[in-house]
Amino acid sequence: MLPLVLQGSFNEILIFDLETLRVIQANSAARTHLQYTLRDLRSLTPFEILADKESAARFIKTAQGLDGKKKANSAPFTSIFKRKDGTTYPVDMRVYLASNQDSARYIVIANNISDRDKSQKTLDDTESNFRALISNIPGMAYQVLCDNKGHAKLVFVSEYSQAMLGIDFKTLQAKPKLFQDLILPEDRPSYLDALEKAGGCHLTFNWEGRIWIKSWNDVKWVNIRVKRREQANGEIIWDGIMLNITQSKQAEAEIRRSRKQLSELTSHVEQVKEQERLKVAREVHDELGGNLTAVKIGLSWLQKNLPPDQVKLLERASYLNSIVDQTMEATHRIASNLRPTIVEFGLVSAIQWQMKQFCQNLDIECSFSTTHEQIPLDPDTSIALFRIVQEALTNIAKHAKATKIWVNLQRKKHQFHLEIIDNGIGLKHAPKKTKKTFGILGMRERAAALGGELWVGDAVEGGTMVRLSVPLKPVKD
Question: Domain check: are 88 and 18 in the same one?
Fold first, then answer.
């Protein structure tokens, strides 16, 4: 049976003579790994096969401690074998004492553990790299294991828990509920809801909320991202990371405050501009209009009282009279542009009038539809919405090359909706310098000042669409 055992084993088997300690027999695995022939091995002792004196001494001590009656084999221990070319490799080995009436031998069974050591080293390096990576993340990493019975256990917490929560990672791992106790009461329901959904059908959840750290007298915003994965044995692992997003939340709040202040400033500026336009329009109408009317009356009197034979004077007076008419018409137009009086008759009427003027001047086909003949609005809102329509029509005239426009005005509950569509070249084919004009920016600022939104883009069937949505405020009596 011995030859079958020797040749059939994947482990290295060496048989040493008890007296001389020389190799008597070696299987194929031992000869291959040690790079010796059987003839060469039979001249070697453990002192040539083991890599150093310490390994050889341990082998001798182990072998000498064996007693066939009390102890026939040793416990496994690690040693190092040396090949013929001088290279070495680690082995796990066990020494057996085999004896009978005629002879006694030591049988060494060794297992090459080079691959195991490499794997362990790789594993150790991976773990070291993982811990280095985790330690450099500006957040707390953790892992929760949920077994088949539904029992959850916090199996890993990074050391950043101290800086994040003021709780040592060992303490938090032992008492995970300490984190939940830090969450502000008003934010806790959303966290528990996200946690419940993650434990059910959701693979991931993303939660943001505030925590209160009493020892620091500080409120922090944290973001928790968790990914849920299932093991082959049915257990569930949650891999999570908690980040401190206080600074970003403060920045968001500051941006919102700045935007609100900018919106209020824009609204104030527009109100001041409209008031100034109203003032100038009144002065143009009252002062210039009154003076031009007086000049008109004077010229008419001259024309009536000039002698009939003063042909040149009559012609000059008639020419001046026509100039005064043109100037009065221009004065009226300028005053209307500064402060359209048509807005006082309602926004719907004002938009219809503006479209009529626009289409007549540019010879463009216009279509207007509305769900309400009148929409009650305060004067500031009416003039702001009217200015947006004016600017949209001006952009069409300048850039669109359109032959038709559609305007739809609706009121849905407490929302004002307006759509202006043209069949022109659209934004895709417009010159780059016209895609982001101050006109569009001005329209958006007016809409934002009213608490609304304005969108400008390509229409479905070509051309450009302007879509406006503004909340309607109750009109004060």
Answer: yes
Alpha-carbon gap, residue 133 to 365, rounded angstroms:
67
| In a domain? residue 159 | yes
**Per-residue pLDDT reduced to its tens digit, 173-213:** 999 889 989 999 999 999 888 878 776 656 678 899 999 99
Q: How far apart are CA 353 and CA 16, in angstroms?
A: 115
Structure tokens at 195: 């946690």
Is 80 exceeded by the pLDDT of residue 137? no
Query: Whose structure tokens read 């528990």?
Result: 192
Which tokens hold the place of 338? 């500064």
Q: Is 120 within the bounds of a domain?
A: no
Considering the domain architecture, whether residues 82 and 108 belong to the same structural domain is answered as yes
Distance CA 408, CA 410 (A): 7
What letter does residue 472 receive in the DSSP assignment?
Answer: P
405: tokens are 């426009």
Report yes or no on 198 lying in a domain.
yes
Q: How many domains does the chain have?
A: 4
pTM of the model: 0.50
Mark whether 187 and 298 lie in a shared domain.
no
**Among residues 100, 121, 96, 141, which one has the least CA distance to residue 239?**
141
Q: Which helix (H) or strand (E) holds 462?
A: none
Residue 359 confidence (pLDDT): 86
Pair 396, 443: CB distance under 8 Å: no
| Domain carrying residue 161 | 137-244
Residue 128 lies in a domain: no
CATH of the domain at 168: 3.30.450.20
Query: 238 and 288, same structural domain?
Result: no
Are 273 and 330 contained in the same domain? Answer: yes
157, with CB counted inside 10 A (0-12, 13-18, 19+), is buried
pLDDT of the residue at 43: 92
Domain boundary among 218, 244, 270: 244
Query: 3-state SS string over 41-99?
Result: HCCCCHHHHECCHHHHHHHHHHHHCCECCCECECCCEEEEEECCCCCEEEEEEEEEEEE
Q: Do residues 192 and 231 both lie within one domain?
A: yes
The confidence score (pLDDT) of residue 374 equals 83
Q: What is the pLDDT of residues 291-343, one digit of tens each?
A: 888 888 888 888 888 888 888 888 888 888 899 888 888 887 787 777 677 77
Does the structure show a pLDDT above 50 at 464? yes
Question: Could you read off the pLDDT of 208-253 as tens digits, one per residue?
Answer: 999 999 888 899 999 999 888 888 888 888 888 999 999 999 999 8
272 shares its domain with 333: yes
Is residue 164 a contact partner of residue 139, using CB atoms and an 8 Å limit?
yes
Last residue in a domain, options 244, 267, 293: 244
Report the SS3 class of residue 217. coil
